[in-house]
Design goal:
201 residues, mainly alpha, elongated
């Protein structure tokens, strides 16, 4: 009799505590799942925040470059007005010209009597330099422009075309959009090759 009572009590205890253990395990599993979801949300938030920061950085840099571009265009006009004091690095395509050609360029520009004739002369000179760069397979870097973002993933012709397009854009917004599109294309090209892009531009 005592033996059967003891077994009944033991069975009752086992039944009483089994659901609690099971519930506790489910609760721990749920807490673990909640923690995992929170970590995923935190990682996603960090990625978004870094992406926003990168976009903001790119916008600020593009805005600064746009302001620099306006200054460049103003300086280009000033250079045409005073060719005798024009430095070698101020001449479009100077790296493709001999010292004699640079001096001749200054002299011819100085002989022009009107602003319109100077600008026409400059346009013709730029076309000549672009053709020369293409024939020689060399980079043509306009005054006040430097390296091109992802230039190592571009051909000489692509780099020269990019620089020329950038130089001719008047609007800050268009310049910013042009540079953003260029960065996206280069990043895709680099990613396809499994390589990273050197920061430049």
């Amino acid at each position: 009799m005592r033996y059967s009572i003891a077994i009944s009590i033991l069975a009752a205890l086992i039944l009483a505590f089994t659901p609690m253990d099971s519930f506790a395990q489910q609760g721990q599993g749920g807490a673990s799942g909640d923690r995992g979801q929170q970590m995923d949300r935190d990682r996603s938030f960090d990625r978004d925040r870094m992406s926003d920061r990168d976009r903001s950085f790119d916008r600020d840099r593009a805005r600064d470059q746009a302001r620099d571009g306006d200054k460049v265009q103003a300086r280009d006009r000033d250079r045409l007005q005073d060719p005798d004091n024009m430095k070698d690095q101020d001449i479009y395509g100077n790296e493709l010209m001999s010292a004699t050609e640079r001096n001749q360029y200054r002299h011819q520009l100085g002989q022009m009597e009107s602003e319109q004739s100077r600008e026409q002369f400059q346009v013709q000179h730029e076309q000549n330099m672009q053709n020369r760069a293409l024939q020689q397979g060399k980079d043509l870097v306009p005054p006040d422009q430097g390296s091109v973002y992802g230039g190592e993933f571009m051909s000489v012709q692509e780099r020269n075309q990019y620089r020329e397009q950038l130089r001719l854009i008047d609007s800050d917004q268009q310049r910013e959009e042009f540079q953003a599109q260029h960065r996206e294309r280069i990043n895709q090209r680099a990613q396809a090759l499994g390589l990273s892009v050197e920061e430049a531009e």
